[in-house]
Amino acid sequence: MLDLLENAWFALTDVLNPHGPAVNAATSYSPADYSVHFFLQLAVIILACRIVGWLGQKLFRQPQVVGEMIAGVVLGPSLLGLFFPDLQLAIFPKETRNVLYVGAQLGVGLYMFMVGLTLRLDHFQSKAKSAATVSAAGIAAPFLLAALITPFLLTVPGLFTDGISQANATLFMGACIALTAFPMLARIINENGLANSSLGTLSLTAGAFDDAASWCVLALVLATFGSGPGVAVIAIGGAVLYAGFMLIFGRKLLAPLGRAVEARGEMSTQVLAITMLLFCLSAFLMDAIGIHAIFGGFLIGVCMPRGLFVEELKRKVEPLAVVLLLPMFFTYSGLNTRIDMVNSIPLLLVAAGILVASVLAKFGACWAAARLSGEDNRTALGIGALMNSRGLMELIIINIGLQKGIIGPTLFSMLVLMAIITTVMATPLFEAVYGRKARETGELDQIDPRLATV
């Protein structure tokens, strides 16, 4: 049996790397080789996400999305690469990851477009004060705590790059702590049947503002690392101008698409093509100015017509985005993650301190802000639990910090641990403080079950 498995492994290796290990990477991969890897990678990703997601649901009552995040880490160097490095490298060679990256961006951008379609602007208008208060607290408290802990972190060797200023280090840490896992938050809200609720809308809106602010702060930090001040000006100014234009004029300009669907009774391929074109252009614009494609997808989704248009578009697009494309996003981020870098007691204590500070700054501050703005205690606790999730948006921003020379591998690993723990704790914490009671009282029965993802 072992001989059979060994022969199968060598055969698979020959297929995945027909040119042999000695061939230069620039010449060893033809378009056909990329295709072979891509389809195998997709198959492995879907299988791993379904299995881990199912186990998470059955054993730990975690939503599918959390299982997919963990599956991404499992497929990376932290687990599969640690125990079976040759197998992991054969399936996900570094030369093919750019292709996976493109699919990952399409998946997460398209999913956030779907999330924008379900955003209830009437709920936002009725909860504008609460959303603004929660968002402000979710930004101010993390930056305040970052200012308190960063001077100590700068004294620990290897956390930050030598020569980084205290101001830049503080801004980066503040952005990392303030970040809310916007795609993760949206998926958890959908899977709990809250996408059409007041609490879900408030949390999504505050999370969107907090993430946008974190990306703007990151742009400011990057501007001092060789990119120039133009990066920050274009990112922040462009995002504000585009968001303002879309929120003021977008719904009126896009209304003919909704009328066309209502008149026909279904969405034609012509309307679908136009809609996808507009989504791509919006995602491109936000990516090009230095924010992120997901905000472009989310923003144009918010401005799309409601009614039958949304129902038809979700029916045609959402299953493909959720099952096939979005898992690529989690896996790509997991391939860049290592959780074995924190390997001593002092470093574990530092990592624990960062985790505690992050939870206090996000969960505690958002709960207090919601209470001060008039929400009842149970709703405020639910908002705090949701806003505390970091997810793989955190991995995106810290990967940028690592690549740009802002942080070192050790701090990167600590922030990865913080992202995983705060995400895993989000659903059970939310259930304990809000979800269980809401189901007992029937508050969630008003939610359209079609809004919940698989």
UniProtKB/TrEMBL annotation:
Keyword Transport among record annotations: yes
Primary location class: membrane
UniProt-recorded Gene Ontology molecular function terms: antiporter activity
Keywords: Ion transport, Membrane, Transmembrane, Transmembrane helix, Transport
Biological process, per Gene Ontology: proton transmembrane transport
Coiled-coil region: none
Subcellular localization: Membrane
Chain segments annotated as transmembrane: 34-53, 65-84, 99-119, 131-154, 166-189, 201-225, 231-250, 271-299, 319-335, 347-370, 411-430
Cation/H+ exchanger transmembrane domain sequence ranges: 50-429
Topology class, membrane: Multi-pass membrane protein
Pfam family name, one: Na_H_Exchanger
GO cellular component, one term: membrane
Protein name: Cation:proton antiporter
